């Protein structure tokens, strides 16, 4: 159950941190329609995060940070707001700071292409909760991927400036793509047990999806190596970029000021 | 300078029809004839309302990233998203009067159209999210419910939908404060401090006293506006006092008391000088709010241009 | 002593928050010389803040936030890291987010013109500690004012772009200038007691200094009203801009995660 | 292709003088004759060192805003400021070789000159500030102390000053870790985690094994470099192990043990593939560090232009 909890944290933290970054776009999008769309996707991922963090806590209460006696803070919030950066298991792609609109389009494309392929397989998980979360998530993330794909095409074939910005965003984010389809030992182990999915098993499908978007858009697949970790450790091991602790400083500040607060 | 009867009569007939519709409390629709001044008044009011929704995303949006529970984060994000949606409906209503969203946005950014002054106050704690729901949305609803019966059809219908969602937001805000009041001492103090800051600005949301409100009379005659500023302010105070008691907060007005004779609460005088300063652009956040909106608009220009170019190219390809 | 403590917090918080904003420039200045100069000024103000916060705590230990039993956190750090935004007494000019280099020049000019005039008078304070802090501070802040004045002139008479940016920064910050020379009741009371200085008594001198900088630089004194408070309350009363709580979220995050930490 | 004896002799005499100076372990000064390759090697090495100081401001600067005590904030800010100062001395030393700071900056930003790979690792906790002082500055000192005796005068003198300040920084870093180790369990864990991350990258600061270090032989012959990579690495390990024991942290190397026979510590092999990836630009922070530097440079362009224009105008006014 410790393994299942750890696995749920990986998927849940991906959704939580990505949602946090998306929600930073609120009131800042190029127009109202995209403001609403970005908020919608942030809400979808926040919903997935809540279910997955709750599942992690149920699978192994030991993963939930201790709070003062009698604190009414629910487990999902203890996990979201009272863990330090190194206890987060999200991929680094989810956490890096927002750039321009091309950056959010590319990040969403890379993220949701991999997450959709994963969730589709996870619908068959031996863990009924995970299977249900995946079934719900597939519909949501399919929309995210389509939104990102449409905008990728639009920016690629829009103006010179939009093309230039899109390619710059793709170059900047591509080194973080590999981590989405790399396998952590926990994932391998849970995949063997029929509970989780080995992301490496989605690699070809994800590649094909991305290649198709690139082809339609007339953009070359970047030729850039994956971002190194530290001693081989990456986001999935709790070794993040400098961006995560800053993100958490903001996200957690009110909750931490009131460890016995009711909200 | 003479006009023939045939030239005059149609316009007079149209005006008579318009007046009769107004008198019946019926709706004017986009294709109906309407006086220019009515159209201008409506554009000004609906645009100001739309701008308020959009600018109003900022004070609450300020706390989305810091929401102290995931449930509250979802509620707040959905609420701010609703405000964007309200802005959309209202800009659409305005477009039925022949003014585009882009034009209205330019007028807002140039400082030539206003938005509600309440959004020029800062949000300084998470309790403000609740207080804005309770007091600010509460005051907005008092202002807006009568507008569901406003004479211009698209505006009235937009208001019906908006008021429904605003009532929901108001209950959520109140519920947040109620939950916080059942929490720690620090949380209760936070709620009280927030109410202290927002009480008077909320009262000022109803506008200056009737005697000093220049546009009100005509707007009421046209059925664009249906109650006076002071009537609505009184209604809001009467509605809010028992809610404050239930919550356990003190409204920061030593003159606030029930007047048996009037059947209403007496209350103190808001600081109209502060309201004037805020309206004049010197409020705590006027510059900040417009700068934020302007930055978002400018940062997004290249995206809108790309979308337009892509759409034109696609249409061209389709036509070929 | 409660009044003296409150007064020290005003002067100390001004220095602390201003120092925090200046230190954000570190590794971001237009050249190495200015990077070093900005860090120096941040260090000067940090030093002033430490002395003033310590004096506040000594004058009235009641102002120091309570920490867990046995916490080794010194009073200056308890005050800096464990107060909420509304307990800070700095002017709002000190806290607003950094803009471009013109912004830091204008902010420093307005801030140090007022602070220098104040510290010069405070050297005669009946409180020996305050008098000593002021005597040391005068030399530092005189340098800050000169630095800002030199750069104000340089940007005003440099290029069209630098002139435009300078005027934009001045327009943006001018509404916050008045708070520097407005009187809080506490200041009036301590000025009467010969301990503090009524900032209003420096108004003419500060105006003259600024007017001279404007005149030499060929820049008009802005014609903009002071930024309103909320019900008349401004930074000195603990009613701040939205920027302060964000600044504190960053500044306080590590200290708060370790309320019994030793550093 | 024939050269007259008079053309040849002076150069040969110059070279002989140069060689003699080197052999005496004396200093070459800016106006002295030097071989082009010597000059190029020095420019490359000093520039890389200067860039390292400047890029090295970022990992520690990342924590200035979050320093957990005012005393530590002052220490850290002063330290990062010192690094800017070191950058200044070193660029000045490089300028004595005829290359301007602006040119060197352009080469850095274009990715055509390197900086120390250690700065391509992220700082992830406040303990990293201490660890960088202890291990990274410690390794840098091992590398740099011999450079105080380097053959090129301005570089050697800059290094004397820099090494003095670096030793001070190293002691401060170690003192921070020591203080944290006397703190809470969470602080001790933070220190250990930080040491775990920085140990191997610190060892890699001495460069590849001697057998694979192409530039070392000539640099040593010229007295630009005075010890081999492996010698310095061994010295660092031997120096650090007792410090780690005093601190109470475990160095993350199961092969680390005292070898009585060699009179040195044996230790494991660093991950040279990771070093190669980082050097190739794919380290965790390469892109981030350069983007930060580039942004600062570009954001400051208008200021530098204004200063130049103002100086020219003032000079013109003075000349009139």
From TrEMBL, chains B, D:
It comes from Actinoallomurus iriomotensis. It comes from the Bacteria. One of its GO terms (molecular function) is phenylacetyl-CoA 1,2-epoxidase activity. GO terms for cellular component: cytosol. Gene3D superfamilies: 1.20.1260.10. Coiled coil: none annotated. The lineage of its organism: Bacteria, Bacillati, Actinomycetota, Actinomycetes, Streptosporangiales. This is Phenylacetate-CoA oxygenase subunit PaaA. It holds the Pfam family PaaA_PaaC.
């Amino acid at each position: 159950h410790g393994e299942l909890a750890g696995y749920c944290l990986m998927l849940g933290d991906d959704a939580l941190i990505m949602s946090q970054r998306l929600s930073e776009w609120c009131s800042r999008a190029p127009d109202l329609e995209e403001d609403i769309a970005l908020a919608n996707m942030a809400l979808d991922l926040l919903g997935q995060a809540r279910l997955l963090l709750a599942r992690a806590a149920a699978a192994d209460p030991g993963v939930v940070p201790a709070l003062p006696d009698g604190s009414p803070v629910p487990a999902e919030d203890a996990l979201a707001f009272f863990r330090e950066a190194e206890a987060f298991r999200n991929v680094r792609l989810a956490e890096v700071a927002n750039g321009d609109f091309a950056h959010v389009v590319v990040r969403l494309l890379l993220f949701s292409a991999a997450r959709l392929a994963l969730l589709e397989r996870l619908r068959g998980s031996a863990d009924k909760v995970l299977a249900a979360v995946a079934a719900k998530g597939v519909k949501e993330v399919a929309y995210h991927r389509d939104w990102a794909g449409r905008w990728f095409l639009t920016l690629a074939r829009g103006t010179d400036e939009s093309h230039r910005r899109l390619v710059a965003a793709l170059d900047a984010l591509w080194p973080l793509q590999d981590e989405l389809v790399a396998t952590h030992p926990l994932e391998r182990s849970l995949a063997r047990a029929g509970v989780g999915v080995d992301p490496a098993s989605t690699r070809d499908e994800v590649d094909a999806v991305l290649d198709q978007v690139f082809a339609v858009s007339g953009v070359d697949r970047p030729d850039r190596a994956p971002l190194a970790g530290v001693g081989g450790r990456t986001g999935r091991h709790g070794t993040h970029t400098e961006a995560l602790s800053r993100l958490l400083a903001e996200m957690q500040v009110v909750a931490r000021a009131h460890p016995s607060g009711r909200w | 300078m003479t006009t023939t009867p045939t030239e005059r009569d149609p316009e007079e007939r149209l005006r008579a029809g318009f007046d009769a519709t107004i008198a019946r409390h019926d709706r004017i629709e986009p294709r109906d004839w309407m006086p220019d001044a009515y159209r201008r008044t409506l554009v000004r009011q609906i645009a100001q309302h739309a701008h308020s929704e959009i600018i109003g995303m900022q004070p609450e949006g300020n706390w989305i990233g810091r929401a102290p529970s995931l449930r509250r984060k979802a509620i707040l994000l959905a609420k701010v998203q609703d405000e964007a949606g309200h802005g959309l409906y209202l800009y659409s209503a305005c477009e039925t009067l022949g003014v585009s969203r882009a034009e209205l946005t330019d007028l807002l950014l140039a400082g030539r159209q206003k938005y509600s002054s309440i959004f020029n106050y800062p949000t300084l704690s998470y309790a403000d999210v609740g207080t804005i729901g309770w007091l600010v949305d509460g005051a907005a609803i008092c202002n807006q419910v009568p507008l569901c019966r406003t004479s211009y059809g698209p505006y009235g219908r937009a208001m019906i939908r908006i008021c429904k969602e605003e009532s929901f937001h108001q209950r959520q805000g109140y519920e947040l404060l109620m939950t916080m009041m059942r929490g720690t001492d620090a949380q209760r103090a936070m709620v009280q401090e927030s109410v202290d800051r927002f009480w008077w600005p909320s009262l000022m949301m109803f506008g200056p006293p009737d005697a000093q409100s220049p546009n009100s009379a005509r707007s009421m005659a046209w059925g664009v506006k249906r109650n006076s500023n002071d009537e609505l302010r009184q209604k809001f105070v009467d509605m809010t006092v028992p809610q404050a008691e239930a919550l356990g907060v003190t409204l920061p007005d030593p003159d606030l008391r029930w007047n048996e004779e009037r059947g209403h609460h007496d209350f103190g005088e808001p600081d109209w000088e502060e309201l004037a300063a805020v309206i004049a652009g010197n409020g705590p956040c006027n510059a900040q709010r417009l700068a934020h909106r302007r930055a978002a608009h400018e940062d997004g220009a290249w995206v809108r241009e790309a979308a337009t170019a892509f759409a034109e190219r696609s249409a061209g390809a389709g036509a070929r």
